[in-house]
Each structure stands twice: as C-alpha cells, then as structure tokens.
Amino acid sequence: MALKTSSPRKGGISRANGPEGLDSIPLRYGDDPYVWACWLYYEDGMTQGEIAEAMGVSRATVNSYLADAREKGIVNISIEPARLASLTIAQELKRHFGLADCLVVPNDDNTRPLIGRLGAAGAQALSKMIKSGDTLAVAWGRTVLSVGEHLDMAPLQDVTVVQATGGTTASFAYTPELTTAAVARAISARCVNITAPAIVASAQMHDMLLAEPLIREQFDTLSRANRIVFGISSLRPNSTIHTSGFFESVPLQHYLAKGAAGVLAGRFIDERGRHIAGPLDDRTIGISLEMLRGIGTRVAVAGGFDKVPALLAALRGGYVNVLVTDAATGAGILRADGVTSLDGKLSQRQKSTPVANAYRTHVKKFLNNPNDVVEEMLDGLIAAHKPYLQPIGNSRRALVARNGPRPGKVGLVIGGGTGHEPCFVGYVGKGLADAVAIGNIFSSPPPDPIAKCAVAASGGAGVLFVYGNYAGDVMNFEMAAELVEEQGIPIRTVLTTDDIVSSPVEDKEGRRGVAGNFFVFKVAGAACDRGMTLDECEAVTRKANDRTYTVGVALESCSMPQTRRHNFEIGPDDMELGMGIHGEPGVSRERIRTADEIVDTIMDNIFKEMKAEPGDRVAVLVNSFGATPLMELYILFRRVEQRLSAKNITIEANWVGHYCTSLDMVGASISILHLDRQLTDLLHHPCQTAILSINAPETDGAARG
Amino acid sequence: MQTFDNASCGAIVLSMAERIVENRAYLSEIDGKIGDGDHGVNMAKGFGMAAERLKGKNAPLAESLDTLGTVLMTEIGGSMGPLYGVMFTEFAETIQGVEKIDAAAYSKMLHAGLSGIQSIGSAKVGDKTLLDTFVPAVEAFDKATAEGKSFGEALEVLVTAAEAGRDSTIDLVAKIGRASRLGERSLGVLDAGATSCAIILKELSEGARTRLV
Questions:
Q1: pLDDT tens across A130-148, in order?
Q2: CB < 8 Å to B74, chain A
Q3: Quick one: how far is CA A377 from the chain centroid?
Q4: Cα–Cα distance, A149 to A178 (Å, whole number)
Q5: CA–CA separation, A149 vs A420, rounded Å?
Q6: Minimal CA–CA distance to B17: which of B109, B84, B106, B112?
Q7: Range(s) of the domain holding residue B175
Q8: What CATH number was assigned to the domain covering residues A372-694?
Q9: B179 to chain A: nearest residue by CA?
Q10: N- or C-end of chain B: fewer Cβ atoms within 10 A?
Q11: Domain DhaK, which positions (chain A) (predicted)?
Q12: What's the predicted TM-score (pTM) here?
C-alpha cells in the first residue's frame, strides 16, 4: 500500500466545504480523508462501519472513499503474478462461458503432477458446494478419483453420492465404482453404485437391465442428483479412454469420423458440444447428456493441453457450469474460442508488477585495471594515512602503526580481506591495533604478512590476534601464529563472532565476525595500550566479543571489481536478513519493510540474547555496507535509540557511518556492545587512527568519532 | 610397469595453470551463487603467478609442484591458498627424488596431499568441499590398482571418480565455510572448491597418463 498525502495544511483543519464530520481528522493524515479512511481500513483493519463511526461520516461515504482511493492510486494492491494470471484467466473463463464459478490453479508449481493439483482444487471447490441433503453424482475418471482422494470435509448429513454410469472392467484404478466410493467415503455419504455394466452387448440387454427394480432404484437416485462432478476425456491417441477398457471392442473410428471432440460420462460430443449419435447409445447404461445438463451444479475437473478441444466442446455445449482447470489449459481454451483480449490483460497487468531484471549487466566503478584494485587502493591508502601507518619492510600487505608498538606492550594484530574499508586498516594507530595484515578482496591474507605483522607488533609481552571467524582467516592466522611462536613470540587469538543470526546461540563459536569487530578491536587496542598482560588483554577482548551483538540487512548485493556484476540478486521487493560482510547471501530472504520495522526485527533479535537491565549502558554502531547513505543510517539510528530508551538503556557512545563495509553493497548492520565498567573505561581510552580518534590530544576534525 | 618421468613432466603444472586461468570466470560464477564469488579470481591469480615463475625453466614435476604450492601458500590467502598450498607442497615432497613415478608413488603422493589438507581443514566428505572430489578420486585410483588395472587405466578411473565427486556436491548441503551459513539454500549448486579440485586432478592425471612409458 502506498500512501500519498496531498499538500497537508499544518494545524488548520476546519474547512467550510469539507465533508461533514472531518473536523477531527488526526493531524497525521493531513487534510486527506481518503488517506485516513484507507489507513483505518488497510492498516488498522477496521470495518467500514467502524471507520464511518471514527470519521463521523456515513458508511456509504467510507465505501466511496475506499473505492476512489484505489482509482487515485493512494492504495495499490498487488497480487503475485502467477496467482494474478490464474485469477485473470478464471475470471475471463467465467465471463466468456457464463459459468457460475471457475477455479484455475497456477502453473507455477510444477513440483506436483497436474492430476494431483487439479484433484486438490476440485476437492476445494466441491467442499464449498456440497451441503447436507445433497445428492452428488460422480462420473468415472483419473482426475475425479484424485478429487475424491483430496476431499476432506466435516461430515454432512443425508448426503448421497451416486455413480453416474454403469461399471467397467476393473483393470484400472479409477473405475466408476472406485471413484464414486472414494468421494462418498471422503464426505461420509451414502454410496449408491449402479450395479450394471456401463456398456452392454445389446440394446435389448440395456432395456432389460433398466427394467430391473434394483437398477431402476439406482437410476431414480441418479435422477435426483442436484450436483455432479465429472472429468472430460479427449480422444487424442494418448487419452486414457483408449486404455480404460470403457470402450473395449467399440470402434472409436465411428465417432471420430463424425467429428467427436470429447467424451463426457461415456457420451460423445462434437466440437460444438452436440451429442454424436452412434452405435453405443442404445447400449450405454448411465446418465444421459440431457439428464446431466439438467443438474444444478455441474463441476468439470480437467486439465492438460490435450484436453483443450474436449473442454471447449463441453463448455460450448453447456454441460459445465463450474470449471476447475489449470492456467495453461484455461488460457488455451480461451484462445481456442477466439478470446484475444486475454494476452493484453495478462501482459497489461504484469506491467504494474515489475518483474524485469532491474540490474545492469555491469556495475560502474572507478577502475584502472580491475586486477590491480587492491594494489592501487593500498598505494592511495598508505599515502593518505601516512601519519598513522607504514609498510613493514617492502610488504604493503603488512602495515604497522607508526607510534603503536612499544617495548613491554602486548602487540595487537588485526587483519582480513579487503573490500571492507575502513576495516581493517582504518583501525591501526596509537591506542588501537599495532599492525594489520591485508588480503585480497574478501579473502584472508596469507600467513607471511600476518607473521610480519606479529613480529613488528611485538614488544616482548606477546601478541594478540583479533580477526573475524572465517575458515580462511583461521587457517592463515593459525599458520602464521605457528611461524611466529617458533621465534619465541607468544600469540593469543580472539575470533570475533558478533553476527548473532549467522548461527544459533548454541553454536556461538561458529558465528562469523562482522561490523562488531569495531568494538572488539577498540577494547583490545585500549587494553594493550594500558599495558595489561597478554592474559588480561585476551580475557577482556573475549568479553567484548561476547557482549557484542550484530545483525545486518542487505537490500542489494555487492559487486566484485573483476566481474563488475552483482554477486547474486535480491528481488525488487526483497531484503536479505542476516547478511554478512562478504556479500555471501544471508540467512533468510524477506519482503522489504519500513526502516522502523527492520530495526525492530534486528533489535528484537539482539534483545533476545543481550541480557540488558534498565539502567545498563551500551555502545551503538550503525554501519553502512557501502552504498547505503548516512541519511538512511540516521533513520535507522533514530529507531535504535527509541528502542533502547524505551528499555531505559543508556547509549554511552555511538557511531553512525561506514565502519565495516562490503564493497558497494546496499544495506546496513546494527551492532550493540553491552558495556560494563571495564568495557566503558576501555571504550573511552584514547586512540588515534585514520578513521577513529577518541579523546586523542589532537583530534582530526574530520574524524568520525 | 607403467611410469612417467619426474624430470621431464613439469609441463603438467603449466597446463594445469592454463586450465585454471581459463576457468576463472566459471569458478567465480559458481562460487558467487553460494560463496563470495572470488574463487576463480584468486585461483587464477595464484596459478598464473606460479606459471610465470615456471615458464621456460623445464623444471621437474616435483619442483614445479613445489613452486605452485609455495605461491599458493604465501601469496594467495583465503582458504584455498593454504589448502591447495599444502596439497601441492605435500605432492612435491613425496615425489622429490623419485625418478620414475609409478602407480604406487602416485598414490602415495595423492595421500600425502590429502592428509595435508585434512591437517589444516576440518571438513569431511559430504560437507560440500573439495574433499568430495578428492577423496573418492583417490579411493577409486587405489581400488583400480588393487584390482590389477594398469597405471594408465587407474588414472582414467581417477578422473571419472573426481568428476562424479564434483557433481555429487550439487546435492549436498554445505557444512563448512561461508556457504554453510546458507544451510539448505546451498543445495542445487556445485561447490567451487570441488570443481577446481576436479580440474586440478584431471589435468594432473591426464598429463601423467599421456606421458606414461
């Protein structure tokens, strides 16, 4: 639903020519009663009567507001395309053939065979129609048997189900007897079979059998039928009619020569639906076409493209007034009967539901040689942040803080793939990380630069590795740790695992590290800078990680510089919940909602795990994945702040901006660090890096701290 | 007994690198479906760099594999860098000094590479990783030689098993690595590592088979 207000007048409401009773229109709707009415109806779920009362107008006025609102485009109602198509086809079939009702199953679901889906739909139709006291006639067939198998309804009273034709050979599963019995059983009805063959040897035998009192009684029941369900057989070579045994020994050629298009309850019709007389007429025991046409509710359940001519014939002949079919067959019937407007209707409708691929083939980027992006970025980055960091030796994949490492201090080494800027290099400097190892895009650095970092960061008190929990990073950092420990430098590792939706709480250690890195690095850097021991540094860093909770949502995928294509696609109306920082798909895909609703989902997830009491303090990070602008981040922060203050949780510090990105992904993450005294203290400890300066003596004016 | 010559077969590594570079876009494409889409790029970078260093040197197979392993291990990073790095380094060490490589030596080499991978990674067969290609390929090779098939025949069996293993990942749910966060959504897609592993094993084994004497 899209709501548009027209030039709201602030404050002033009363209008001499305005509709009656609108003086009290709430401010938020401006002076637009249409929007007000729509809101109450679609959003608040009020009835038209309740709305009339709330608005102080008549019910008829509410009704016309709602109708006009749709015409004016204030309200847009959209239906899923496959369902829309089947509804459009159903409506057109109903109109074109003057049916009482029509049910068309979409063809989007090809996981189940058509017979089963038609059976389920036919069962649904029947269950709405059959009432206590009815007599339902049932013709034989595979589809009708499927209806019986799917039928499941509360027991009715005094319902009779009667077989519409005589019996056939039992060499197949959908004989008239079995089909009728299945339907009767499903609705707990009395079952009346016709205890004579459907086709007998001679007209004489036919007359004799019908003279039998038992069979006459059965026929009396049949003649009382007020509803009938039947299938329709085509005469195509693959039709079951050839294998069913129903017409054994009968030359179908006779009927085909006369232009037979289909068979209904054992009777042949031509393409106009007229009965074709033939040698079988006098030998067939079962409902006649005249009898059938006299029944009130005549439900045909059939589908499949080969049945189009037969179905069309039955519709033209007026044998059907409730049709259950599938979308492809329905459309085929309409086209075969010369309905040309259908295509227009289907395509016209679809224009309003954007299904076209909205993505370009290539995403525009500032590039020279796509293979050199990391190297060229490092050229720029090392030059730009010269005051804070420098390459270790000649390796630009290992950078050290200019005034970071010092004797007696635990060294802090961070690192990971590129594409997350300002992560990780932005957090290297005094009071934060001492060195950073830099990998390729979204790819861990190899052991060598990590080892170089560790050696450079070492001040003789050991080195702490802090990095995100990803298989590649773990392997490379562990190999580096082994290399460095051989040189007598003790290494401790804390893996960040703040992404709380990446794995359930029982598997907390398996979670990935995302933007919450920011808080964990900050605390670790402060602990190291305070001169805490390696043990203490590790413990407090672990605590910071345990108390950091992040959830991300992506709206659009990111694109790699080498491919310049989206790594995957998120549909026009979708979002990906649980998106990490590598552009790998998230945990679940949902319809996009309002910013507040998205924040609420995120915060609800966080509150579920964070045991915060009123009065507790937190630090908040609202982080862009790359392409989401600050404007939207502030909108998100606004709601985060509301949710926290409603719980009386104080925001001790907050950051809103690009802190851990995923190239050009559209989306954002929210991280909350649940503070305690020690963490608060460390959070405020001075630091000075390219991206983050806190309480630093000479704070860079542009620093986003 | 069929063997191939260590000293003159270094070119196998060059053609392996060529295949990987050729498949750069394809490997990234399938990786992008459930991973982060960089597998082809990183693999091509590492194999390309190794090929640069080896070109024109006519180095023996062991030395070529060692160069490749070292480049992957030290320059590439990610998870494939160390995994394939260890595998090739182990391959190289096993056949170092073996003049004529026979089926037994080849098997020994494969097993060393496999245990190298298993020593740093924690994946098992069925987790939708390169092991789903590697393990059945090695098993098929050993079984074929145990049944008395020639080295050449066993190499053919190995390639078939590797490709079947690769295809088996389509029906697997990822249990490890980034794709594992997807759970059931990782079904229906080839694993990129299993695919590159099939390329590597095929090139290595075909290269060996055509050089058998």
A1: 888 889 999 988 899 999 9
A2: 446-448
A3: 37
A4: 11
A5: 57
A6: B84
A7: 4-209
A8: 3.40.50.10440
A9: A584
A10: C
A11: 369-694
A12: 0.58
Nearest residue in chain A measured CA to CA from B27: A563
| Type of residue found at B197 | C
pLDDT tens sequence across A66-97: 888 887 778 877 666 667 778 888 888 888 88
- Comparing A412 with B213, the larger pLDDT belongs to A412
* Domain tally, chain B: 1
Distance CA A175, CA B173 (A): 44
Please give, rounded to a whole number of angstroms, the shortest distance from the CA of B38 to a CA of chain A: 8
The verdict on a CB contact (< 8 Å) between B75 and A446 is: yes
Q: Indicate the Cα dihedral angle B153, B158, B163, B166, nearest 10°.
A: 170
Question: Residue B7 and residue B4: Cα distance in Å, rounded?
Answer: 9
Q: What DSSP line would sit under A34-102, residue for residue?
A: HHHHHIIIIIS---HHHHHHHHTS-HHHHHHHHHHHHHTTSS-----HHHHHHHHHHHHHHHHHT-SEE
Q: Mind telling me how many Å the CA of B141 is from chain A's nearest CA?
A: 29
Alpha helices in A212-353 (DSSP H): 213-223, 253-257, 289-293, 308-316, 327-336, 341-352
- The DSSP secondary structure of A128-177, one letter per residue, reads HH--TT-EEEE---HHHHHHHHH------SS-EEEESB-B--SSSS--HH
Q: Angle, to 10 degrees, between the axis of helix B61-71 and the axis of helix B39-54?
A: 140
Contact B76 A443 (CB under 8 A): yes
Q: Give me the half-sphere count of Cα atoms (radius 13 Å) on the Cβ side of residue A511.
A: 28
Q: Which strand (E) or helix (H) includes residue A555?
A: strand A548-556
Q: Give Dmax (Cα) for chain B.
A: 48
List, as one string, the DSSP characters of B10-71: THHHHHHHHHHHHTHHHHHHHHHHHS-S-HHHHHHHHHHHHHHHHTTS---HHHHHHHHHHH
Which residue on chain A is closest to B72 by alpha carbon?
A: A446
The fold for domain A112-339 equals Rossmann fold (3.40.50)
- Cite the active site residues of A: 420, 582
* Residue A384 burial (10 A CB sphere; 0-12, 13-18, 19+): exposed
- CB-based contact A465:A439 (threshold 8 Å): no
CATH code of the domain containing B42 = 1.25.40.340
Query: Model confidence over B33-77: pLDDT tens digits?
Result: 777 677 888 899 899 999 999 998 889 999 999 999 999 998 888
Residue A157 has what pLDDT?
84
Domains A112-339 and A372-694 in one fold: yes
Instruction: Please give the helix or strand (H or E) that residue A186 lies within, else none.
Output: helix A176-186
Residues of A with CB below 8 A from B26's CB?
Answer: none
Tokens for A236? 């195509």
Residue A339 sits at φ, ψ, to 5 deg, of -80, 110
What does the block give as tokens for B174? Answer: 């990822």
Q: Do A562 and B41 touch (CB under 8 A)?
A: yes
Does A444 contact B79 at a Cβ distance shorter than 8 Å? yes
CA distance A645 to A5: 31
Q: Return the residue matching tokens 């089926």.
A: B103
Place of tokens 């460095």: A484
